[in-house]
Amino acid sequence: MRFVDEFRDPEIITKAAAEVHRLVDPGRHYRFMEVCGGHTHAIYRFGLKDLLPENIELIHGPGCPVCVLPMGRIDDGLSLCQDSNVIFTAFGDMMRVPGTHGSPLEHKARGADVRIVYSPSDALNLARANPDRHVMFFAIGFETTAPSTALTLLRARVEGIKNFSVFCNHVTIIPAIRAILDSPDMRLDAFIGPGHVSTVIGCRPYEWICRNENKPIVVSGFEPLDMLQSIVMILRQLNAGEAKVENQYKRVVPWEGNRAALRAMAEVFQLRPYFEWRGLGFISQSALRIRDEFAEWDAEQRFQVPGVRVTDPRAAQCGEVLKGVLKPHQCKLFGRECTPEHPIGALMVSTEGSCAAYHSYEHRKQLLTNIQTAA
């Protein structure tokens, strides 16, 4: 398959890994943050850590939208489905994320009308099919998914569909990276830039990282060769004393981004003054809200939203893992009280969550090794 098989070619991957080993300074410890949760899963799924020199440390960043959403926002959204006239819709990633009083699936088990959709347009179709009910879409994601929400709201306005609304939780990647860099306990040498977000915003928004922080960033794809090529590009920059934005994912990511998607977002959304992130606290200008022109389709303006603020369970260390301060297995609850079957935190639920990735691949690999050693 074009653009997949060739990026998993063992011979080329072996050569790329050898190039990484050739470029590293054995006397230096490198810390690279992969911002996107999709990259974290690729690293563990393909065993890329085993191909890298020991002095390259990969730090998991805050690029999982489900993971960074604070529990209070989940409670706010779920409060709306207490109304029997409301159909609560969300992506499958959200369904097992715990709120204070349970996950969306647990609310469904108690009688709430909670449904999985694969796009906001699916939720709009539900509204068309159920004119006597109100359909609320729990929107989540970085700039990757925001355009589809914007286009759905534009369609709802054109068609005059009034029994549909969006509870908007879209966040933006640049302020999150800035918050990471401002953290006093975080030392990073470079960034593996998010591929999916960059298909929308392009590469130019990252230039300040190189200019102000003197750190390279390479926007990367998600196949094993993509990741290794990106690390090679970072090492070449560091060895040359350079710090610039490079686009390894050129087959998908345009430098200037998707202008049609950006126009749709600008028409429907505006920046919130502040928004709370799990583990990072309140970050200014870091999330999107629906413009007043679309108030009829804004769940926060149509309904009474309680505005809950809740701290994570005290023993769970989601915030430290999100910031890259701790590895997933270093959390006190990891693999014991908190598992994919019984998650305490969102990082163990999402398909982009670092704890879920570590548990699915690295943790199980270690368990198998221990069993084989014991045998």
Explain briefly what this protein structure is.
The protein is of the alpha/beta class and 375 residues long. The chain has 15 helices and 13 strands.
Give the strand content.
Answer: 15-25%
Mind summarizing the main beta sheet? Answer: 5 strands, parallel
**DSSP helix count?**
15
Query: Helix amount, in percent?
Result: 25-40%
Using the 3D structure, state the CATH architecture of the largest domain: 3-Layer(aba) Sandwich
Rounded to an integer, what's the Rg over CA atoms? 21 Å
For CATH, the homologous superfamily of the largest domain is named as HypD, alpha/beta domain 2
**Assembly of the depicted chains:** single chain
Shape: globular
Side by side, the strands of the main sheet go: 2-1-7-8-9
Polypeptide structure, described:
- With 375 residues, this protein is of the alpha/beta class.
- It folds into two domains: 1-313, Rossmann fold (3-Layer(aba) Sandwich), CATH 3.40.50.11740; 318-374, no CATH class.
- Helices cover 39% and strands 17% of the residues.
- It has helices at residues 10-23, 37-45, 65-68, 71-79, 104-109, 120-129, 146-159, 173-182, 195-201, 207-213, 224-240, 259-268, 299-302, 318-322, 354-374; strands at residues 30-36, 56-63, 86-90, 114-116, 134-141, 164-170, 190-193, 217-219, 245-247, 269-271, 274-277, 281-284, 288-290.
- The protein has a five-stranded parallel sheet. A four-stranded parallel sheet has the order 4-3-5-6, sandwiched between helices. A two-stranded antiparallel sheet has the order 10-13.
- α7 links the parallel β5 and β6 (164-170).
- The two termini are 40 Å apart.
- The relative contact order is 0.16.
- The mean pLDDT is 90.
